[in-house]
Every structure is written in C-alpha cells, then in structure tokens.
C-alpha cells in the first residue's frame, strides 16, 4: 500500500513538471500577433463653388421700326 | 530480477521528472545550445484619405444670351460652353494616405436641382487615375460623368494605397440652365474610405 502511494506521488509530480515544461516552451514560441480591424476614414470635404449672374435681357424692341405696333 | 508494474511506472515517472526539470532549467538559465532573438512588431492597418485639392471654384459668370444653358467642366475652358465663366479649373484630387486599400464612396450634400435650380440642371463627377498613379482606382464606378446624389455611391473598389498608385482626379461638370438660381452656389462633396 505504501509503495502504491509513493508511485502515485511520483506520477503526479512528473505530470506537473511535464505540464510546466511544455507551457514554458509554448509561451516562448515565436508567434507574431496580427489583427485586422474594420476602419473607416473621411477625407474631409471637397467644395464646388460657382457664382451665377443673371443674364442680360435682350432688347427685342431695338430692331423694330419706330412706331410699328404688334 | 523482475520488475513489478509499480516499479515500471515509477521509473517512467522519474525519467519524465528528470527531462522536465532539465527543460525547465534550460528555460530559466538560458543554458541551451542555440538560442533565438525575436524582434516583434505589429503594424496596424490605418485607413486615411485626403483631398489634396479640395476646391473647385468656377468663379462668376452667366449663361450666354439666347442659350438654354451653359456647361462648366474642370479641365475645359468654360468660355467655349455657352457661358461667360472664364478660365480653366483643376479637378479635385483625392489621395489614399493610409496603409490599406479602401472602398471609396462619394456623395454630395445637394443634388443638382437644389444646388443650381432651373430646368434640368446637372451636377456630375468623373473619376480618373492621377497622372502618375495609373491603376489607383480599381473597378471604377464613375469612369464617365455620373450624377451626384446625397447617398454614398461606390466610386473605386478599391482605391489603392501604394504610393505609385494612390491618387485620383475627381472632375466636375455642371450644366447651368438659363433659368437657374443666381448668386453664389456652393456644394460640399464627401468622400468616405472603408476597409473590408
């Protein structure tokens, strides 16, 4: 019975050390973290400006003979 | 000499303990045959676009007498298009200044009817690659003059980010009818870049 207890203790210690050793190896691995985020950007604003002047009014009476009435 | 099952398990466990401790010891002391140094850098994606030419000002003028309307266009002398506006205006220029391709959307704050008024006005844009940026706009959705709307319309899918191909020209065309609004009229164009 005493022998069995000793074996169990040794096995538990062995498993614990094995897990520790493997964990340390994994943590020391050369992983390069990467991430992709969705991103949105505004460019500010473009402006389009125009100034519209009222067109000159054509003088359609200018060519009419004087005194002619329509 | 014979081994019991307990003996075999004990020997294996002791072997595992020795190997594990040796491994852990190497981790902490650094007493290993070879070692590697790692330089770790993470470059985040950053979407950014910018109007490098942000203003088109057609200045002042009027529709020629007797004409139904005048067509003003960047890159074209307005004096040849039934109007008295003078000079040649440069196109708006937009650049992807980030480090990732973006889907480019364009919209205006006014449609032609609100911006210019009158009978059948138009307010259009056309996208072309910058002079030294061939291939900047992939899948050009506005390779010919396209009417502005107040909803985001995809123009480039994508606009690329490499310095050799990250700039586009945004040409503007206005048709100002003879019965349009008068005075100074201004419209704002918003460009949005989205990464996928």
How would you describe what is shown here?
The complex is a heterodimer of chains A (70) and B (196). Chain A has one helix and one strand. With 70 residues, chain A is α+β, with helices and mostly antiparallel strands. The radius of gyration of chain A is 47 Å and the shape is rod-shaped. With 196 residues, chain B is of the alpha+beta class. Helices cover 15% and strands 35% of the residues of chain B. Chain B has two helices and ten strands; from the N terminus they run αβββββαβββββ. Chain B has helices at residues 5-29, 112-115; strands at 49-53, 55-61, 69-73, 92-96, 102-108, 122-129, 146-147, 153-159, 167-177, 183-194. In chain B, the strands form two sheets. In chain B, strands 1, 3, 4, 6, 7 and 9 form a six-stranded antiparallel β-sheet that branches. Chain B has a three-stranded antiparallel β-sheet with strand order 8-5-10, with no helix packed on it. The longest helix of chain B has 25 residues, at 5-29. The chains are: A alpha+beta (70), B alpha+beta (196). Chains A and B meet through helix 1 and strand 1 of A and helix 1, strand 1, strand 2, strand 9 and strand 10 of B.
């Amino acid at each position: 019975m005493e022998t069995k207890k000793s074996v169990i203790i040794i096995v538990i210690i062995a498993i614990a050390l094995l897990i520790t050793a493997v964990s340390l190896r994994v943590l020391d691995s050369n992983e390069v973290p990467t991430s992709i985020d969705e991103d949105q950007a505004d460019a500010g604003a473009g402006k389009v400006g125009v100034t519209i002047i009222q067109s000159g009014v054509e003088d359609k009476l200018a060519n009419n003979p004087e005194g002619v009435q329509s | 000499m014979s081994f019991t099952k307990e003996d075999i398990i004990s020997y294996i466990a002791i072997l595992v303990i020795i190997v594990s401790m040796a491994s852990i010891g190497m981790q902490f002391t650094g007493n290993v045959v070879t070692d590697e140094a790692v330089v770790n850098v993470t470059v985040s994606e950053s979407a950014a676009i910018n109007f490098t030419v942000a203003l088109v000002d057609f200045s002042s003028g009027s529709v020629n007498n007797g004409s139904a309307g005048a067509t003003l266009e960047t890159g074209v002398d307005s004096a040849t298009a039934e109007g008295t506006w003078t000079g040649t205006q440069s196109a708006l220029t937009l650049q992807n200044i980030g480090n990732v391709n973006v889907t480019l959307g364009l919209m205006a704050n006014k449609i032609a009817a609100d911006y210019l008024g009158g009978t059948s006005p138009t307010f259009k844009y056309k996208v072309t690659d910058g002079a030294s940026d061939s291939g900047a706009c992939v899948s050009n959705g506005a390779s010919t003059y396209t009417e502005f709307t107040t909803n985001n319309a995809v123009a480039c899918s994508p606009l690329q980010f490499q310095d050799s191909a990250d700039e586009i020209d945004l040409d503007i065309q206005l048709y100002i009818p003879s019965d349009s609004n008068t005075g100074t009229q201004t419209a704002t164009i918003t460009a949005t870049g989205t990464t996928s």
